[in-house]
Amino acid sequence: MTNELMNPITNIRTLEPIIFYSGKADELQIFLKDTDFGELIIISLADDQLKVKEVLLEETNEKLDWKQDYKGLRILVPETGHASNNKMGRVLKVSF
Question: Which pLDDT belongs to residue 11?
Answer without folding.
Answer: 62
